[in-house]
Amino acid sequence: MIVPESALTRKARENAPISERNLAGHELIGLNVEVVCSSDPTQEGISGTVIDETESLLVVRKEGLPEQGSNPKKNTRTGKTVSVQKVGTTFRFTLPSDCESVCGPSRKQAKKVDIQGWTIHAKPEERTKRLLKLLRAKAPRK
């Protein structure tokens, strides 16, 4: 299930392009991810694209598998997607290449960022709201 981008998420992305410093407050759906370390050893090494997110889980479509249907729960039965718990897991996200303006023009390769799952353990809309609050607090007053 591809979730439409909310106005709040769009505003957060426009105000602060995704970078390693603000990754925990950004929308994660669509980013490439790899499970580096997990309290569940069967989930280590899972890699693919984040297709859905809840407060405590990331749903990842495994690499190299075609997208089928729009319901990730149906795909889970066939083994094409896997749900990974956030807490107790270290994720390695690959930032999109359009973050070059933030990451610097000298970086030709995509930037990979490791992040602890507990830092993103929240409802996606709550994480983006926190990012907006931080941006407003840091914005210069007119």
Give the helices and strands, then pairings:
Layout: H1 7-15, E1 32-38, E2 47-53, E3 57-62, H2 72-77, E4 81-85, E5 89-94, H3 100-103, E6 112-116, H4 124-138
Antiparallel strand pairs: 1-2, 1-5, 2-3, 3-4, 5-6
Helix pairs in contact: 1-4
Short description:
With 142 residues, the protein is of the alpha+beta class.
CATH topology: SH3 type barrels
Give, in spatial order, the strands making up the sheet with the most strands: 4-3-2-1-5-6
Tell me the CATH architecture. Answer: Roll
CATH class descriptor: Mainly Beta
Amino- and carboxy-terminal Cα gap: 42 Å
Largest sheet: number of strands, sense, barrel closure: 6 strands, antiparallel
Tally of helical segments? 4
DSSP, total strands: 6
Shape: globular
Instruction: State Rg.
Output: 15 Å
Helix vs. strand class: alpha+beta
Uncertain spans: 74-79
- Helix and strand sequence: HEEEHEEHEH
Structural domain tally = 1
Could you report the average pLDDT, rounded to the nearest whole number?
A: 75
What would you say this structure looks like, in words?
The radius of gyration is 15 Å and the shape is globular. Helix 1 packs across helix 4. A hairpin with a 3-residue loop joins strand 2 and strand 3 (57-62). The chain contains four helices and six strands; from the N terminus they run H-E-E-E-H-E-E-H-E-H. It has a six-stranded antiparallel beta sheet. It has one domain (7-136): Ribonuclease P/MRP, subunit p29 (SH3 type barrels, Roll), CATH 2.30.30. The chain has 142 residues and is α+β, with helices and mostly antiparallel strands.
